C-alpha cells in the first residue's frame, strides 16, 4: 500500500509543534509495517541552509492560481525509509518562518494545488491513500472529488483527514474559491465548503474526506461538543460514522531512559531508584538549586501559552513552594505566561528554576529528573509531554481533557496497582492545588510512590498500536 502524507511540516526537516512529530513518527511506524510511505511538504527557505540530507530535483511545473502562474520545483530525499517530496517556490516559501504571514491562505492554496498537479500529471506515483493533516491542504479532497469525477485513475484513491487543532480552520473569502482553487461558487452556495459567510478549508476536508480522525478518543468526543468543536461540531456530527479518535504515540527510540545520551544515569522499570535519583540531582544542579530529597520536584516542559494552564500553576504551586518543594520549567511563548514563571523564580529563588527558550538536553533532563510533571491544560487534543514523562517514570499531574484523560490513570481514582499519575477535572487553581497536595503527600510514602513510578514506566504509548489502527483504517478504505 502506498500512503501519501500531506502536511505543512514534518520531522526532521521542519517543525513548529507536535504536528511535525506525529506525521514523521506515524510514517516511520507504517514503513516498519512494510508499507510505502511518502510525505509531501513545502521546501521552506530555512531548510536549504539546515537540511543535512542529500536532495535532488525531480520535476518542475507551473501551478495556476487565478491570474497567477507560479513555478513549483519538486525535490525529493529519503529519510528512514520515507520518501519526502519537497515543493519549492521562492515567492511563497523562502521566508524565515513557516506560518504567520498575511498571505498564508494563498501560500497553502499554492501548496495544495501543487500537490494536486503533481499527482494529476503523474510526476509521482498515485497513492492508495492521501492522508491530509489539518487545514493547510484541506481542499485537496475537494479537488479530487469535484475535478476528477469519472476519472478511472482517481476512482480508487481514498482520502483521510486528521484534525490536530480545530482552532485553525483555514478561513478565506468566498470570492477566492474560484481564484485559488478553480472550483465553482456553487460549492459555497450549497453549503459544502461554506463556514459562516466564508470558506473553511478544514470544514471542506471534513465534508469531503473519506475518513476523519483526530488525535485521541476523548478529543473525538470533545470535537462533537459546541465548545470543543470550535463551531465545527455540527459538521463533524454529520460525518460521525466516518469519524474516529486514534491516540498518538511517542518515539520510544528517542525517549528511552535505558540509553538516553542526555541523562546523568540510565535506568529501567525494574531498577530505577538510583538512576532517577542521580538524574534529579543533576537537574537541580543545572538550575543551581540544592537537593533536599525529602521535598518533591515538579517539572514543566511546555509552550508557554494560555492553553497550557500556566496561570493555574502560578497560583496553585505557591503553597507547595512555601513548604520547600521545588519547581523547574522549560519553555517559551506568550510574554504574560513567561512573566508568571519569572515572578515565581524571583519570589522563590532557592526552589524555582526557569529556562525561557528551548533546549533539547534540558528537556530530557526535566523529563527524567523531576518527580512530578505538570500538565494542567485547558484543552489538550492529545499531548505528548505526559507520555514522555510516563516513559521516564515522572508521574504526570494533568487536567482530565483530551489525550491527557486517555493516558493518565490518577491515583485519586485508581488503586496503587493501576495508577500512574494524578489528575483533576475543574479548571481552577483550587482543583490543581488539591492535586498537588495529594502528589506531595504520596511522594512522602516511598513504597506507594515507587509503585506508581513503575506503573508509569510500564505504560505503553509507543506508535506501534496507533500505527496498527491507522493501517487497519487504510485497508478498510482501500477495500470499499
Task: Walk me through the topology.
Blueprint lengths: L1 E5 L11 H15 L3 E7 L2 H6 L5 E10 L2 E12 L2 E7 L1 H4 L10 H17 L8 E5 L6 H8 L10 E6 L7 E2 L3 H6 L4 H4 L4 E2 L2 E3 H8 L2 E4 L2 H7 L9 H6 L4 E3 L27 H14 L10 E5 L8 H7 L1 H5 L3 E6 L3 H13 L4 E5 L3 H10 L2 E4 L9 H7 L3 E5 L2 H6 L14 E3 L4 H15 L2 H13 L4 H17 L1
Parallel strand pairs: 1-2, 1-6, 2-5, 6-7, 7-11, 11-12, 13-14, 13-16, 14-15, 16-17, 17-18
Antiparallel strand pairs: 3-4, 4-5, 8-10, 9-10
Quick structural gist:
The protein is α/β, with parallel strands linked by helices and 480 residues long. It is built from 20 helices and 18 strands.
Can you give a write-up of this model?
The protein is an alpha/beta fold and 480 residues long. It folds into two domains: 264 residues, Rossmann fold (3-Layer(aba) Sandwich), CATH 3.40.50; 188 residues, 3-Layer(aba) Sandwich (Rossmann fold). The protein has 20 helices and 18 strands. The strands form three sheets. A nine-stranded mixed beta sheet has the order 3-4-5-2-1-6-7-11-12, sandwiched between helices. Strands 15-14-13-16-17-18 form a six-stranded parallel beta sheet, with helices on both faces. α1 links the parallel β1 and β2. The two termini are 15 Å apart.
Amino acid at each position: 500500500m502506498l500512503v501519501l502524507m500531506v502536511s505543512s511540516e514534518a520531522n526532521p526537516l521542519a517543525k513548529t509543534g507536535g504536528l511535525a512529530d506525529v506525521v514523521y513518527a506515524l510514517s516511520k511506524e507504517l514503513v516498519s509495517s512494510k508499507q510505502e510511505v511518502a510525505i509531501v511538504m513545502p521546501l521552506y527557505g530555512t531548510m536549504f541552509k539546515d537540511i543535512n540530507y542529500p536532495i535532488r530535483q525531480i520535476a518542475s511545473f507551473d501551478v495556476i492560481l487565478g491570474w497567477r502562474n507560479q513555478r513549483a520545483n519538486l525535490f525529493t530525499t529519503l529519510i528512514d525509509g520515507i520518501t519526502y517530496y519537497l515543493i519549492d517556490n521562492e515567492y511563497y516559501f523562502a521566508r524565515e518562518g513557516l506560518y504567520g504571514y498575511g498571505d498564508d491562505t494563498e501560500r497553502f492554496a499554492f501548496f495544495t494545488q501543487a500537490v494536486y498537479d503533481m499527482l494529476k500529471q503523474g510526476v509521482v506515483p498515485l497513492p492508495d491513500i492521501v492522508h491530509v493533516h489539518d487545514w493547510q491542504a484541506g481542499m485537496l479532497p475537494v479537488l479530487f472529488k469535484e475535478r476528477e469525477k469519472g476519472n478511472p485513475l482517481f476512482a480508487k484513491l481514498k482520502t483521510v483527514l486528521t484534525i490536530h487543532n480545530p482552532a485553525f480552520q483555514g478561513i478565506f473569502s468566498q470570492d477566492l474559491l474560484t481564484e485559488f482553487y478553480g472550483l465553482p461558487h456553487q460549492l459555497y452556495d450549497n453549503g459544502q465548503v461554506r463556514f459562516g459567510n466564508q470558506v473553511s478549508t478544514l470544514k471542506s476536508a471534513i465534508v469531503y474526506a473519506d475518513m476523519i480522525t483526530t488525535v485521541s478518543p476523548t478529543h473525538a468526543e470533545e470535537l462533537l461538543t459546541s465548545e470543543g468543536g470550535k463551531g465545527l461540531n455540527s459538521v463533524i456530527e454529520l460525518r460521525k460514522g466516518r469519524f474516529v479518535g486514534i491516540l498518538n504515540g511517542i518515539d520510544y527510540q528517542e525517549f528511552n531512559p535505558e540509553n538516553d545520551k542526555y541523562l546523568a544515569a540510565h535506568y529501567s522499570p525494574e531498577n530505577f531508584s538510583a538512576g532517577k535519583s542521580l538524574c534529579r540531582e543533576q537537574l537541580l544542579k543545572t538550575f543551581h538549586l540544592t537537593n533536599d530529597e525529602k521535598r518533591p520536584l515538579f517539572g514543566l516542559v511546555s509552550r508557554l501559552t494560555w492553553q497550557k494552564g500556566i496561570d493555574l500553576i502560578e497560583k496553585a504551586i505557591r503553597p507547595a513552594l512555601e513548604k520547600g518543594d521545588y519547581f523547574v520549567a522549560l519553555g517559551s511563548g506568550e510574554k504574560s505566561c513567561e512573566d508568571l514563571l519569572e515572578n515565581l523564580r524571583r519570589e522563590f529563588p532557592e526552589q524555582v528554576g526557569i529556562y525561557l527558550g528551548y533546549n533539547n538536553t534540558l528537556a530530557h533532563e526535566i523529563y527524567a529528573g523531576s518527580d512530578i510533571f505538570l500538565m494542567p491544560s485547558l484543552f489538550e487534543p492529545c499531548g505528548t509531554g505526559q507520555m514522555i514523562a510516563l516513559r521516564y517514570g515522572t508521574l504526570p499531574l494533568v487536567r482530565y481533557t483530551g489525550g491527557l484523560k486517555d493516558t493518565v490513570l490518577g491515583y485519586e481514582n485508581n488503586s496503587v496497582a493501576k495508577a500512574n499519575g494524578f489528575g483533576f477535572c475543574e479548571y481552577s487553581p483550587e482543583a490543581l492545588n488539591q492535586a498537588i497536595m495529594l502528589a506531595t503527600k504520596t511522594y512522602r510514602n516511598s513504597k506507594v510512590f515507587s509503585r506508581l513510578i513503575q506503573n508509569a514506566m510500564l505504560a505503553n504509548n509507543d506508535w506501534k498500536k496507533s500505527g496498527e489502527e491507522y493501517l487497519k483504517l487504510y485497508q478498510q478504505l482501500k477495500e470499499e
